[in-house]
Amino acid sequence: MTKRITLDDIAAAAHVSKATVSKALNDTGQLSAHTRRLILKTADELGYVKTANVQTPRCKTGLIGLVTSDLEGRFSNPALIGAENTLGSTNHAVLLTNSRGDPKLERAHIDQLAARRVDGLLMLGGETDSRPPLKPNTALGIPIVYAYAPSNNPEDCSVTCDNVAAGAMAIDHLLLRGRRHIAIVSGPEHYTATKDRLAGARKALKQSGLQLAAPVCYGNWHESWGRTAVQLLLSKGVRIDGIYCLNDMLARGVIETLLAQGIRVPEDIAVIGHDNWQVTATECRVPITSFDNNLQEIGRRAARHLLDAINGNPHHGTTYIGCSLIVRKSTTA
Q1: How far apart (Å, rounded) are the C-alpha atoms in residues 276 and 278?
Q2: What's the rounded Cα separation, in Å, for the pair 123 and 299?
Q3: Would you say residue 38 lies in a domain?
Q4: Residues 293, 275: contact at Cβ < 8 Å?
């Protein structure tokens, strides 16, 4: 019969007192983040199983830890505003930290937030690529919700935008305007946003019995690639009357190049972008039809899901927030 691991066993292995072990396992008392992490790691390695009927319930502090990987990013800021507004309306205080995309710094921040006894953690990413879930010992049993960058564990609660639906809507929008010879200018192929938007676009084309007028032009997300990509498309002599660009910077590069060559937008070629970045979409010579990722709503929904989890009603899986089509002159004469 396997020996049941006790607090004394953990204390001996971690070289701390039994009382310190109890504080770490029950999340009570003041302990340093390092000591708490050491004890939890030792307990896990020894195979300690906590008895349900002796658990000490967490006392709510009204504090929420919000960890962003990109505090200055134009994607994370709106989501942050949405989350803070929702949490503030329920009298929760937000402790904000920025990991700058560094996993070690992220873990250090989480340890510090756990030491402050936050009621929950909201992990806010700067892109829609999925991320590894926090390890149990790192999260210390605190409710967690992932926003924008979903966890790759389907059991975790995540909230992000529906790029697949947006890709399909982009093609449908061009088709409704009589465009049948459509090309796509994209950023790097490996991004989840790229894959999802293309999946939606291809599905919409297939349902209409159409194919792309040319292979997808993969490159980077910069305006300069939009200029280069459309020049490559035009040099092939392929008939094109619509171009779906997977972000607004690409769309601006495409539009400026078309205009420079005497090609009218949208009369000759309609152009649609994505992200609805105001400084790009509205200040282009031909304002860009684009998709808004509804980032504030992503932040609000993630915050509501986190509050539900804190109150004992956790959500599982990924919630997809629809993108909104913002029609401007690049697709409507």
Answers
A1: 6
A2: 10
A3: yes
A4: yes
- Spatial CA neighbour of 292 closest among 328, 255, 241: 328
Residue 222 domain-assigned (yes or no): yes
Q: Pairing relation of β-strands 290-292 and 324-326?
A: antiparallel
Q: What is the pLDDT of residues 233-258, one digit of tens each?
A: 999 999 999 999 999 999 999 999 99
The model's confidence at residue 136, banded by pLDDT at 50, 70 and 90, is low
Beta-strand relationship, 144-147 and 120-124: parallel
The DSSP annotation for 38-101 comes to: HHHHHHHHHT----GGGPPPPPP-SEEEEEES-TT-TTHHHHHHHHHHHHHHTTPEEEEEE-TT
CA 114 to chain centre: 23
User: Per-residue confidence at 318, pLDDT binned at 50, 70, 90?
Assistant: very high
Q: Are residues 88 and 173 in the same domain?
A: no
Torsion-angle region of residue 141: left (phi > 0), alpha (psi -120 to 50) or beta?
left
The total number of structural domains that make up the chain: 3
3-state secondary structure of 159: strand
Q: What is the pLDDT of residues 66-75, one digit of tens each?
A: 999 876 677 8
What are the tens digits of pLDDT across the range 29-43? 677 878 888 888 888
The string of pLDDT tens digits covering residues 74-92 is 788 899 999 999 998 998 9
Residue 329 lies in a domain: no
Contacts 24+ apart (CB under 8 A), 255-261: 255/284, 255/285, 255/286, 255/288, 255/330, 256/223, 256/227, 256/284, 256/285, 257/226, 257/227, 257/230, 257/231, 258/230, 259/285, 259/286, 261/234
- Looking at every residue in the chain, the average pLDDT score rounds to 91
Secondary structure of residue 14 in the 3-state scheme? helix
